[in-house]
């Protein structure tokens, strides 16, 4: 027999190749899990750009003792049970791949106390079999510790950049995620130093503060607030006036049903809306939220879920283009007086 089934750990490591490219992808998966668990406070603590250690603590609903070992099994998820669930999906996760993948390429600890449980439990996987659950100390919620990422996959490890570069990717990711949920507190520490502390709360003051911290202190002042609805498509957010443009596409944040998206069709619609009012080679700035019936959008295109497919892409394109175009038209006078930033 030449054909053999691969051992489970190797299958997980291969899957990890798709989801876990670098420390920032670990942070993304773990933060999304915390959000799916209903956390209102998420602490992200990384050492040496996340290569040495990533520790994420949330105050979500937690995981029960019975579910703890299951959480590290491939294709095991509490978020969908059928194709119907997938079609009406609102959670960030659904593939049941992140934890087993991350655990297969790191020294991994998962400690959690479920909201209905008397105590906390821990499971660990240090490059091999799963150990636990054993009793542990933890308030309601979950902590995941990922140490020595890629210690057993040297080829992957060699692709990592400097600590600084890896850290900046994490910081960028946290910026993006923190704009997706204003009601959640995000705290980020690097090498023991608190770098970001975005206080959660659904007030205009907190919202504007968070946006300005990430986009520049005069972004809101120079942006137009948009709120548009057509049928079951709804878009709200801020688009910078054409005069507040950028040399890089580094202030572009787009969310679909609270999920960060980098989508060609969306990008095209926005570029087109700015086409006549921006100098060539300059980029617009925006923070936009599209709400759409989950049945009209497919997020199961790629494991990282950055891309989407729309059932009616022309409708979505025209809606995004039209909403922005119309808002910009109102400020058209003097629009070409560009102030470089
Ligand atoms: P997915 O998010 O696609 O379901 P994961 O591998 O990321 O898959 O997580 C597996 C399961 O572990 C989740 O479905 C969830 O039930 C549980 N889980 C993971 N992280 C947390 C967390 N921070 N809080 C509560 N439950 C969690
Ligand atoms: Mg997940």
Automatic annotation (TrEMBL):
Keywords: DNA damage, DNA repair, Endonuclease, Hydrolase, Nuclease
Transmembrane regions: none
Keyword Manganese: no
DNA mismatch repair protein S5 domain: residues covered: 211-329
Signal peptide: none
An annotated Gene Ontology molecular function: endonuclease activity
Family recorded in the similarity comment: Belongs to the DNA mismatch repair MutL/HexB family.
Job of this protein: This protein is involved in the repair of mismatches in DNA. It is required for dam-dependent methyl-directed DNA mismatch repair. May act as a 'molecular matchmaker', a protein that promotes the formation of a stable complex between two or more DNA-binding proteins in an ATP-dependent manner without itself being part of a final effector complex.
Protein's UniProt name: DNA mismatch repair protein MutL
Species annotation: Marinicella sediminis
